[in-house]
Amino acid sequence: MSDLTLTDLAAAPAVDTARVDPAPARSRWGFWTTTAWAVAVFAAMLLVDLAATVAVLVSWGVDENSMPTAAELQSHATIVAAAALAHLPVCVAVLMLAVRLARTSVADYLALKRFDTAHLLIGLACTSGYLAVVDILTYVSGRGLSVPFVQGIYRTAVEGGTLPVLLLGVLVAAPVSEELLFRGFLLRGWTASRLGAVGAVVLTSAIWAVIHTQYDWIIVGQIFGLGLLLGWLRLRSGSTVLTIVLHGAYSAGAMVQAAILAG
């Protein structure tokens, strides 16, 4: 996706400007305050991530002699699911506090709006097309169709009988948390700054990509591209609910691939 496309979208008169413009200055946070709230969200999520990991290890009866490696913990389905499910209420709580202190509606600020069928079909076509392109490129490069991390969490979920919990965390909790923060809160605040719509989409996509430390730089690059796509769809539709659905659908596609390859 090019910057020109995003610029044209932001400037196009046919688009309902109420969908892409920020909230009035008196009812929104500026760039730095928005950033500070996001840091607060990340800090809170890091704490509950640590707490969830410790709780899982205690439930396993792990001691210093049987402690899994960091790589094993990071790719274990139970750890991933526990973290994703723990992140959701914390993320929602902090964002709701931030929006309430801005004295505006949570639904309006975070663009929790209905989307029409046309935007859903466009979004599904774009995200499935992007996944297909990514698959083709990774296959041609000899890296394989499924990401090792995804294969790892799927395998450990099947072995441990925790697949339903993993799917709830990966396909529901994670998309809701991440989309509310990035395509909802951050995009709203940063679009109103000197960054504008294009800069806000690029910056949110970059940060969203680099926080996925479980992947190598190639996969991080693919996540950045997906972020650009979701940001564009968020501006086009005016709905963060749509990007939550599409994010979940994209993750579902990745899990289906892992299941097929696992036989």
Give a concise summary.
The chain is an all-alpha fold and 263 residues long.
Task: Provide the descriptors you would attach to this structure in a database record.
263 residues; globular; disordered N terminus; mainly alpha
Coarse shape: globular
N- to C-terminal separation?
A: 34 Å
Largest sheet: none
Summed over residues and divided by their number, the pLDDT gives a mean of: 88
Number of helices: 12
Proportion of residues in β-strands: under 5%
Helix content: over 70%
How many distinct domains? 1
Structural class: mainly alpha
Radius of gyration: 19 Å
| Number of beta strands | 0
Low-confidence stretches: 1-18
SSE string? HHHHHHHHHHHH
Topology, element by element:
Blueprint: H1 3-11, H2 17-20, H3 31-60, H4 70-74, H5 77-101, H6 106-109, H7 117-140, H8 148-160, H9 163-191, H10 196-210, H11 217-237, H12 240-262
Helix pairs in contact: 3-5, 3-9, 5-9, 7-11, 7-12, 8-9, 8-12, 9-10, 9-12, 10-11, 11-12
Can you tell me about this structure?
The protein is mainly alpha-helical and 263 residues long. The protein has one domain (3-262). Helices cover 77% and strands 0% of the residues. The chain has 12 helices and no strands. Helix 5 (77-101) runs parallel beside helix 9 (163-191), helix 9 runs antiparallel to helix 12 and helix 11 packs antiparallel against helix 12. The two termini are 34 Å apart.
